[in-house]
Amino acid sequence: MTDVSAPSPVPGRTPAARPEVGSPAPLVLSAVGLRKHFPVRGMRTSAVVHAVDDVDLDLHRGEVVALVGESGSGKSTIARVLAHLMPATGGEIRLHGEPVVARRRRDFRRYVHRVQMIFQDPFASLNPIHPVRYTLSRSLRLHRGRMPRDEHERALHELLARVQLTPPELYVDKYPHELSGGQRQRVAIARALAADPEVLLADEPISMLDVSIRLGILNLLRDLRDRLDIAILYITHDIASARYFADRTVVLYAGRVVESGDSESVTQDPKHPYTQLLIGSAPDPDDLQARARGARGEAPSLVTPPPGCRFHPRCPFAVELCRTAVPPLTEVASGRRAACWGYPGDDADVPDGLARPTLGSMLDTYGARPGREEGADR
Ligand SMILES: Nc1ncnc2c1ncn2[C@@H]1O[C@H](COP(=O)(O)OP(=O)(O)O)[C@@H](O)[C@H]1O
Ligand code: SF4
Ligand SMILES: [Mg+2]
Question: Between 20 and 30 A from 334 (CA), which of 137, 151, 178, 318?
Fold first, then answer.
């Protein structure tokens, strides 16, 4: 695939100047106390799956935030709720600080214009019966209205160039089955860009692609962040790719945020025992699940999640306090937050008569993943 050295910007969008180092970029999208519970199917009970509980998330302009967690931890649910593909059970979503209430069709349109989603499976997300031209034209018309024919054609070509599918004439009339997985994902990204969004929610955008082309897609997303100042939520189960790609990393465990901070320090010096286990097992999360299961039982049921810290059944340092009270997400170092009772904090949060746990080395307990330094597929 040919690289375009300087693709023209998406029409209608003037890239904003990147904020100076150290000055916080404006907040675009945030979730406050986000909660999503699903009724348990086929059962006449009030039981629910606690997929997401009390999640706070901030996305700033021109920033990539990685949302990392193992399968079933609630990553896709957060993205779908943020994209308004389903309603939240509780909490609030704010766009530029304003609560979003997209009850009317027009409000919904305005919102999806700003917040676009890229799905994991580029094979399922493009309609096989339509060529690229149809897919992109539909999105352009939906978001930018009807244009004169030559302007429309120019916009189509600019979208393809923006995702580095060049020369555009080579791709514009192709059907999905004529494209590789990576090319399809680029078309899906171009379709999202047709809306001229401020936020991209990318749900495991590379996990179904061939290893050899994953980096190309991440580099493309990074280019979009840099050139268009888009905020990107990058969802992944692979914390190694978060380190490579994301400015900040948020770690999710069983529907709750357990750690957050800048990606470099979260991956170099993980504070939460779960993140330590995740880093120790990267890049193979299945290995983590297998070892943790072998040593310490199953990942928790989200129908009846463990009380207190949801990680306590798998944590070697758990004490009564961990089994009793939910640890608050508190500052554990500059710009770093973790939800673990093992760090000093406000003792008013600790119920009477209970003591904080003493943390040790997770990898001493579980053992480092053998040979993880070698041949790592990053
Ligand atoms: N539509 C749904 N109905 C019922 N349960 C669901 C639904 N979608 C997701 N879940 C449950 O919510 C939890 C989180 O799922 P998901 O957000 O897909 O996790 P992840 O993307 O991290 O793998 C899982 O237990 C899953 O089974
Ligand atoms: S020490 Fe307690 S609070 Fe911290 S991760 Fe382990 S179980 Fe959770
Ligand atoms: Mg998912």
Answer: 318
Q: Give the DSSP letter string of 185-223.
A: HHHHHHHHHTT--SEEEEESTTTTS-HHHHHHHHHHHHH
Q: CA end-to-end span of the chain, whole Å? A: 21
Q: What is the side-by-side order of every strand in the sheet holding 256-262?
A: 115-118, 199-203, 231-236, 64-68, 248-253, 256-262, 336-338, 330-333
Name which of 335, 68, 340 is nearest 78 in CA terms: 68
Rounded Cα gap, residues 121 and 277, in angstroms: 28
CB of 2 within 6 A of ligand 1: the answer is no
For atom 4 of ligand 2, which residue has the closest CA?
A: 340
The pLDDT tens digits for 59-117 are 999 999 999 998 999 999 999 999 999 999 999 999 999 998 766 777 778 888 899 99
Q: What share of the chain is helix, strand, coil (3-state, %, to 5)?
A: 35, 20, 45
Radius of gyration of the chain (CA): 22
Nearest to 54 by CA among 72, 70, 37: 37
207, burial (CB in 10 Å: exposed 0-12, middle 13-18, buried 19+) = middle
Work out which ligand 1 atom sits closest to the CA atom of 78.
17
For the CA of 41, the nearest atom of ligand 1: 4
64-68 and 231-236: which strand pairing? parallel
Ligand nearest to the CA of 73: 1
Tokens at 36, concatenated: 């999503």
Give the pLDDT band of residue 377 (cuts 50, 70, 90).
very low
CA distances in angstroms from 131 to 122, 136, 166, 173, listed in the order given = 14, 9, 16, 5
Which tens digit of pLDDT belongs to each residue from 193-213?
999 999 999 999 999 998 889
Residues 72, 56: Cα–Cα separation, whole Å: 18
On the question of pLDDT at 293 being above 70, the answer is no
Task: Tell me which residue of 264, 179, 186 sits closest to 223, measured CA to CA.
Answer: 186
Contacting residues for 337 by C-beta, under 8 A, at least 6 apart = 259, 260, 261, 329, 330, 331
Sheet holding 98-99, edge to edge: 48-60, 27-39, 90-95, 98-99
As a whole number of angstroms, the distance between CA 184 and CA 2 comes to 15
Global confidence as pTM: 0.88
Among the bound ligands, the one closest to the CA of 208 = 3
